What does this fold into?
Amino acid sequence: MFLTRLIYASTITEHFNPSSLEEIIEKAALNNEKNNVTGMLCFNRKYFLQCIEGSRTDVNKTYNKILNDKRHTEIILLDYREINAREFSNWSMGYVPTSRLSAQINLKFSGSSEFSPYKISGASAYMMMLELKNSLPTV
Ligand SMILES: Cc1cc2nc3c(=O)[nH]c(=O)nc-3n(C[C@H](O)[C@H](O)[C@H](O)COP(=O)(O)O)c2cc1C
It folds into this structure.
C-alpha cells in the first residue's frame, strides 16, 4: 500500500470552543494510532496547519473526516504526494502550540514573521514542520 503525505491549512469557526483543541488532539491520537496514521498539527489560536502521513486509503479517509468537521473552515490543500518513508513516525499526531511558532521560524519559511499557513507553499510548510519536529517530545 502506497505511503502518502497530505498537508492542509484551515481556520477555526464559531463551533471551535475552549475544549475543542484538547478534544481534537485526543481523538486524532486515538484514531491515528488505530489507522497507522502519523503527523503533525500546528495551531496558533486561529489557523491550523496539519500534515498527515500513512497509507493512501487511511490518509484519504482521515482527510475526508477532517473536511467535514465544523470546527474549522477554509480548508486548503497545500500538498499531496506519494512518499517513500514517513517523517513523523514518532507521533500519531504531534502537536505544535503557538509558543513554538516563533517569529524566527515563521520568517525562515514565509514572507512574514506571523504564522500564516495560507501564504506559504506546500514545500515550505513541509520544511517548517520538519524543523519543528526537532523541538517536539516524542509520544
Ligand atoms: C484541525 C483538525 C485536525 C484533526 N485531525 C484529525 C486526525 O489527525 N485524525 C482524526 O482521526 N481526526 C482528526 N480530526 C477530527 C475529525 O475531524 C473527526 O472529528 C474525527 O476523526 C471523528 O472521529 P470518529 O469517526 O472516530 O468519530 C481533526 C479535526 C480538526 C478540526
Notes: The CA atoms of residues 12 and 75 lie 10 Å apart.
